[in-house]
Amino acid sequence: MNYHYLRNLKEKKIHKSPNIAGLGKQKPKFSLKAEFREWCADVGTDHVFYSMVEGDNPSVRITSENPPNAIHGIVADYDAPVDWDVIDKIIAAQCKGLLPTWRSRTESGYLRLVWEFSSRMPITPEMFPTFMKRMAAYLSLDRLFAGFDTASLKSNQYFELGEEWIKVGDPLPEATYQTILLKAAMDKPPQAVETSIPIEEVAEEVLKRFPDRWEEEFTIGSRGPLFWIDDGIDREGCQVTEDGMVCYSDRAGKGFVTWREILGKQFVEDYETKKIGGLIDNYWFNGKYYYKLLFGTAQQIPREQVVMELRKAGFSPKPKKGQPLSEVENAILSICNDNRIDEIAPVIFSDERVVSYNSHRILNSANLTPVQPADDGDPSLWPFLNKWMSGMFINGDTPTIEYFYAWLKRFYTALLDKEAAQGQALLLVGPTNKGKTLLSNRVIAALVGGWANASDYVSGQTSFNKDLARVAAWCIDDTTSAASFTEQRKATEMIKKCVANPHITYQAKYCDEVSLPWCGRIIMSLNMDANSLSVIPALDSSNRDKLMALQISKESMSKFPSNVELEGIIKNELPHFAKWLLDWEVPKEVQGASRFGVVSYIDKTIASAAYDNSSRSSIAELVEFFVKRAREYYTYPTWQGSLTEFQVAVHEFNGGKNVGMSNSLEFVRRGMLVLEDASRNSKKVRPVSSEITGAGKIWTIDLNEKFDIDKGITQQVKHDALRN
Question: Whole-model pTM?
Answer without folding.
Answer: 0.63
